[in-house]
Amino acid sequence: MTDQPPVHEPTTRRRQFLGRLSLPERTFITDALRTETVGGMLLLTAAVVALIWANVWPHSYESVLDYRIGPSAPLHLDLTLATWAKDGLLTIFFFVAGIELKREFVAGELRTPSAALLPVVAAVCGVAMPAILFALVNSGSGGHPGGWAIPTATDIAFALGVLAVVGSHLPSALRAFLLTLAVVDDLIAILIIAIFYSSGIKFWALGLAFAGLVLFWFLHRRGVKGWYLFVPLAVVVWALMHESGVHATVAGVAMGLMLRCHREGDEKHSPGEHIEHLVRPLSAGLAVPVFALFSAGVTISVPALREVFTQATPLGIVTGLLVGKTVGIFGGTWLAARFTRAELNPQLKWADLFAVSVLAGIGFTVSLLISELAFPHDLALADRSKTAVLVGSLLCATIATVLLKLRTRHYRTLCEEEDQDVDGGVDDGVDGGVGGSVDGDGVPDVRQQDEPARRLPREGFGGDD
Q: How remote is the C-alpha of 189 from its chain's centroid?
């Protein structure tokens, strides 16, 4: 009698967590993270330059930060260079974040509830736990609870810059998890800034900004093209949002979310993909590094470092980044996986996710921004908060580097396996490998086994929608 497979096997198969990405998704992740990695290196460089400048020539640094430029009428745009970097250049960063969010909801990990659950839970817990720890540390008489949001953000560019420095061959599934986590983290940070750090709302300006956003959406949906039309409109919307009292970066996010990120007809790339491809280098290569140059310059001294570990506010920030982020992300992911009966990729260990959780504790760009927003009338406290952000991020980067280095050989093996094409050498993700594949499809062997129906990588830099 022929043996029959158990009837219950298909229904009890557990969903795999951090499994191998599809080739199209891996191609998109690789392209996106390549730009972020370069931006992370520039960000690290800008931060170092800012620290040297602020400590060696402090008066020069302060005079540059306080230099005003811009028209005072009609929308009070005579701003300091530091404010232009914080409210202006970072809008470009949040514009790209808005496009990333839209793409994730349309074609990325967040498009299906089952796939989105783990990174969303990880991001929410990774925001909640640092805030709770900060509040506990600052619950006494000398604390400042208003800075609770400072340690809640993850800086993906800085994290990837660290990865580039240590040379870790982190598997694409872990990189994708880190990117998706950071995207959801950005969304939460945007909501926090819009809700808790906006004041003195001018509803006439907010209404006009909203009308400008509606016009932006209408023109885009009608297929109108031309940077000479949309760039001036975007500047007007940004200026009105800035005047309204709502933080100006919210305008960037809103416009990013309005772009269409799915393809229609014979389009090779959606408008959102195309614009992100053009603007991402500007964000990662200019906007964020310049912001870091004008924000990371804090005085470093023995007393200042002592205050980080003895005063409630900076100690709460360091604790939130190092302990809160790690426990929140790792604990939230582990609990969600247990609750949904998701099975970890057998090629990885929970220790790998723990290392990534520590790496996600690097909170730089948005944390520095919130430090200024939380204490606008206490510059000394804002500077101590920035110092704590730098110290906490450095501790997370150092510990994560050690943890990832312990697994570098295993990661390298996994990456080689993902790219190996026996017929054509090692696939480079573009044209089928070093030597060219005999069958001409350019798809690594493990992906032909996993996805026999999906043998061709998607074209260009965009994602399948």
A: 10
Which is higher by pLDDT, 411 or 287? 287
Residue with tokens 């599934």: 173
* Identity of residue 425: G
Query: Side-chain half-sphere of 180: how many Cα atoms within 13 Å?
Result: 28
Question: What is the rounded CA–CA span in Å between residue 373 and residue 289?
Answer: 19
Most confident of 169-178, 223-232, 417-426, 436-445: 223-232
Say how far apart CA 393 and CA 363 lie, in whole Å.
Answer: 6
The 8-class DSSP code of residue 87 comes to I
- The structure tokens listed for 374 are 């939380």
- Asked whether the beta carbons of 329 and 396 are under 8 A apart, the reply is no
Q: In this model, does residue 291 exceed pLDDT 60?
A: yes
Greater confidence, 373 or 456? Answer: 373
Distance of alpha carbon 256 from alpha carbon 238, whole angstroms: 13
Whole-number Å distance between alpha carbons of 459 and 436: 18
Tokens found for residue 59? 């008066």
> Where residue 465 falls among pLDDT bands split at 50, 70, 90?
very low
Q: Which amino acid is at 394?
A: L
* CA–CA gap between residue 33 and residue 28 (Å, rounded): 8
Q: How far apart are CA 130 and CA 139, in angstroms?
A: 14
Measure the N-to-C terminal CA separation of the chain; round to a whole number of Å.
Answer: 48
Strands (E), 67-174: 68-69, 79-80
User: What is the spatial distance between Cα 425 and Cα 432, in angstroms, rounded to a whole number?
Assistant: 9
